[in-house]
Predict the 3D structure of the following.
Amino acid sequence: MPVLDEQAYLRLIRGETGGPAALTARGALAAAAALYAVGAGVRNLAYDRGWKRVEHASIPVVSVGNITLGGTGKTPMVEWTARRLRSRGARVAIVSRGYAGSTGLNDEGRLLEDNLPDVPHLQGADRVRSARIAVEELESQILVLDDAFQHRRLHRDLDLVLLDALDPFGLGRICPRGLLREPVSSLGRADVVLLSKADLVPRETRAAIRREAEARVGRPLAWAEIRQAPRDVVDSASNADDLAALAGVRIAAFCGIGNPTGFARTLAALGLTPVAFRAFPDHHNYTSADVDALTAWAGSERAELLLTTQKDLVKLRSPSLGATPLRALRIGVEFLDGGEVVEAKLDLLVQVIESPSDMNV
């Protein structure tokens, strides 16, 4: 099967690409997905039965994760969680895996570093080792694991799991045939399920998603609903302007995130209609050729401002592309429902710092 770019792959697995070659490709992906599902199932069973060892940190651990590929809004939720814990006086560290072969923080890590300068971020393939460093060398009191629902080697005291309201169940198929990293029934391991981007779908759709999730698990779920709320507009030096600064400006927008449609809808919700919109693959590393192309594109569209996501801006690290100013929309989490559920569970963990015997989340 030929290598596909991200958008072509999504069209293929959604069934939007027709013809004998597409049918054959989907069949091959389905076979690969079956093997992946067996492997994931065996691995989860090994942890459930205690056949694989789970390491325990000496401090409380919170995990923020999901069950699908692509962007569900984990990074803003990690930031919100760390901020909430810091506001209660806890010394927090963020631990993430990063990408294979990467050196230094990845784009999400750099974003969190910009927004949370007082929270250390450890990134590495061995998250148990990173957790040990956070405890022993940084004297952290609580750990927040980024994208760790499938990382079961390190015990967590609170599992927060996000579903994207725009595609909560990953096209209903295990990857690579769909976008599920594991079956929807795995939500049974979650302490709280958070429906992200909930403001972008009607209330009845949100209720239907919850019913479906609970039916797959076979019991009620602790549930919350959030939106990725635009906070302000920032430049490469983290200087912020109010959202009102975008009013009446001729904007060209671009992004390289897991769900570019979500970014486009966020702009629309703000009443912004870009003169042009361009999507790159998730985690796209911008080259000099990309910068030149974006500069020319902005000029051809007569854009007065290039607007992107903060995750993209931390990779470009430039105040402008050519003569066109470059800014990012900074996003924060806002609860629509269930915020008190999450806050209460986090507050219990803060209590554990002083009274370890009280842990019961």
User: Anything to note?
Assistant: The mean pLDDT is 91.
